[in-house]
């Protein structure tokens, strides 16, 4: 077993499909969304600005600002998938090029870097999430089973003296290693 995909346990009975390549020479394994999810348009940010203005001039409750903030941050689309690979390999998550063109969907972190030590980590079993922002003018509904991104396995290189730097054991993702 060199590298591949598995379904995380909480999705074991949800009928998910493992990532797949669609053409003979496709580099990327397409990932499907594990759930139906609505990605709101970021143009609602204007709404946030108005709220701020109202807050400062007319004392609108801070709670509504906080609610708007929660709605407007990038969404994490669950894939229900974890990936195993060799220690000197990485899985790169890249957007499908049709997503910005057809649906206004971008991956705000540019690419996702899935480390080999993310697999089966104690925090979330290594479930891969795709961060998504909708710059289009309409909200977008992602259906369960819809292809949202692609994963490319690659080898990576180490810098000289790499073994002299202290490392920690991965316990999760999205900031788990600290600031
Ligand atoms: O699009 C992504 C990017 C990352 N990850 C997971 C896998 C990766 O191994 C882990 C950490 O990613 P990264 O190192 O890029 O983020 P960080 O902000 O540095 O978090 P950490 O402190 O956990 O390393 O989060 C995803 O599921 N999707
Ligand atoms: Mg990191």
UniProtKB/TrEMBL annotation:
InterPro entries reported in the protein's UniProt record: dUTPase, dUTPase-like, dUTPase-like_sf, dUTPase_trimeric
Key words of the record: Hydrolase, Nucleotide metabolism
Is Hydrolase one of the keywords UniProt gives this record?
yes
dUTPase-like domain boundaries: 75-178
Q: Tell me the Gene3D superfamilies matching this sequence.
A: 2.70.40.10
Reaction catalyzed: dUTP + H2O = dUMP + diphosphate + H(+)
Q: Which Pfam families match?
A: dUTPase (PF00692)
Which family, according to UniProt? Belongs to the dUTPase family.
Q: What is this protein called?
A: dUTP diphosphatase
């Amino acid at each position: 077993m060199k590298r591949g995909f598995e379904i995380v346990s909480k999705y074991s009975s949800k009928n998910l499909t493992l990532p797949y390549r669609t053409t003979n020479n496709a580099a990327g394994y397409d990932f499907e969304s594990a759930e139906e999810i609505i990605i709101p348009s970021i143009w609602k940010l204007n709404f946030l600005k108005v709220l701020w203005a109202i807050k400062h001039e007319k004392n609108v409750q801070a709670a509504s600002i906080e609610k708007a903030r929660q709605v407007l941050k990038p969404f994490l689309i669950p894939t229900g998938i974890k990936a195993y690979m060799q220690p000197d390999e990485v899985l790169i998550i890249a957007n499908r090029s049709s997503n910005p063109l057809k649906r206004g969907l971008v991956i705000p972190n540019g690419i996702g870097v899935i480390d080999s030590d993310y697999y089966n980590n104690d925090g979330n079993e290594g479930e891969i999430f795709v961060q998504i922002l909708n710059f289009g003018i309409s909200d977008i509904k992602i259906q369960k089973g819809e292809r949202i991104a692609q994963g490319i396995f690659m080898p990576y290189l180490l810098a000289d003296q790499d073994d002299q730097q202290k490392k920690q054991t991965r316990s999760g993702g999205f900031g788990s290693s600290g600031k």
